[in-house]
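Technical appendix A lists one of the benchmark inputs used to test multi-chain prediction within the project. The record comprises two sequence entries:
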Amino acid sequence: MDSSLLANLQLGFGVALAGTNILYCLIGVMLGTLIGVLPGIGPVATIAMLLPATFVLPPVSALIMLAGIYYGASYGGSTTAILVNLPGEVSSVVTCLDGYQMARQGHAGKALAIAAIGSFFAGTVATILVAAFAPPLAELALKFGPSDYFSLMVLGLIAAVVLAHGSLIKAVAMIVLGLLVGLIGTDVNSGIARYNFGLPELIDGVGIGPIAMGVFGFGEIIRNLEHGQKRDVFVKRVTGLMPTWTDLKMSFWPIVRGTTLGSMLGILPGGGPILGSFSAYTLEKKLAKDPSRFGKGAIEGVAAPESANNAAAQTSFVPLLTLGIPSNPVMALMIGAMIIHGIQPGPQIMTANPELFWGMIASMWVGNLLLVVLNLPMIGMWVKLLTLEYRFLYPAILLFCCIGVYSINNAWMDVLLAAGFGLIGYVFGKLDCEAAPLLLGFVLGPMMEENLRRALLLSRGDPAVFVTRPISATLLVIAALLLVIVLTPSVRKKREETFVEDV
Amino acid sequence: MKHLIKNPRDFWAGVMFLAAGGLFAGIALTYKLGTAARMGPGFFPFFLGAILAGLGLAISISALRPKNAGPTVDKFHWGPIFWVLMPIIVFGVMLKILGMIVMGLMVVIVSSLGSEDFKLRPTVYLAVGLVIFCSLVFVGGLHLPIPLCPGFELFDKFAVCRA
């Protein structure tokens, strides 16, 4: 296994380091950092926006670039967290607590450097973990029948809402709504167009682009405008990027622990970078000799969550690459991107498309290296960008989104749909409904129907097939257990606490 | 009525799910349902719609219980909604007729009106700069099939305008 792992990684690095691919990786991580630094636009809307721009690229380069945007954004997000006390991305919310305090005490450079070093360490470890764990998991998944697949998706969706924050039942409802929206368009078996309301433009269904851009882009912009955005940049110039030996010694174990925790939580659907960073911070605070230092500029409070969110960002590719199941909205978009590029997501990617599979994994490490090497020296530029006013930013985002959403299919209807989903996304926000489960459901809708149909066709309509097949039964039992655990009062309280952590 | 709703955000979210679920399930009934072994196009959406409606009902009912009390729904700000969504819709409808140059300027300038501190001059500079950038990068560089300027039947005579 070890020698094949090396051979596979060699293949991957061959792909990732090929001239153009390293360039697209660089573009991806740079764009990612940029949107991580800029307020009001996240990786979901950016990836949706740039989908059409990747049409001219070969699939490997396209996915390498889009993946780069994702983990690049978490780097950029921590920069804003440390320098302006505003998390650029949700996953860097906890970094604000101690990172900003460090900056106020004049240690901004140190905080940024530790965040970068921790992230790089985490990225390296997580890349190796993905390379080691993905193949056996994909092999296992190849044995799955339709009923197993259906149960796996149920488990994935349940896990996604259990680990996310907010009301559980509303999240489940959002998933079901997403599944239904995913069914809009022609039914593959009967050829009947469903829910198109007589519109020929909807016969092919609703694209993931309009939904992602509407809900995560336009809806977000409207919300930002009603609050009015004010940000004070505390640090004008960043100096002292080199951490001292003591700093490194103090952050070493937090980085290791954060990486471990983040890697594990990242693999779970719905866990991902957000949960990773929150729990890593909580863990450090519990382990610390003097917990009162936290919140006042403790370097461990930056090192651990930053390592955790980056590790989780990498390992959340595992369910995508091995099972074809998205664990978060960005992964849902990656599935959309794969389908657009003619790649069927699922366990067969590894055997059918080894260059893509290993190239993407290797590119994650390359991307992390690029981020460390390029971003620390460029910190001055990012600081300048922080001062960019929102009133100039959002019209630009809107224009890019309009062009992006139109270009996916050359369809004016998509632009109108995106506007409609923008309004819907705004309403969701008002009613405290998380939009992420909607996107997961949307991507899985058609796949779930197809597998349910096949499973029941094979069993001649007997639903017992889901509990008599061992794999399927196990998955459903795990899903049920998860629900039961989360609904027990003590865990329920704990779950709510994990996400508050003095924020 | 109003005092009965202890958690308005949950209550209205439930109503929304109930309505959406009912709509999807109702329409699904017009398709062939089929049997479990041979599912028609209406089978899966009907059951999902019914589940969604059920969840919606449960959410709304639990919002009536005093122990689930929660904050009111913040008021809708129609200004930002209008200034953000209106230019997008116009862009979608008019792009093929008027082209990206005109529509790009329109999107940037009109949407800027939604900001509290709108100033005309910098906005115009921004709009012109962005349109030039988009034309060069997206149309010139990436060859996205966006009409720059109407090259269509209607304006075919104005050859100057064709990109």
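Chain A has one domain: 2-498. Strands of chain A lie at 185-186, 193-194. Comparable benchmark entries are summarised in Table A2.
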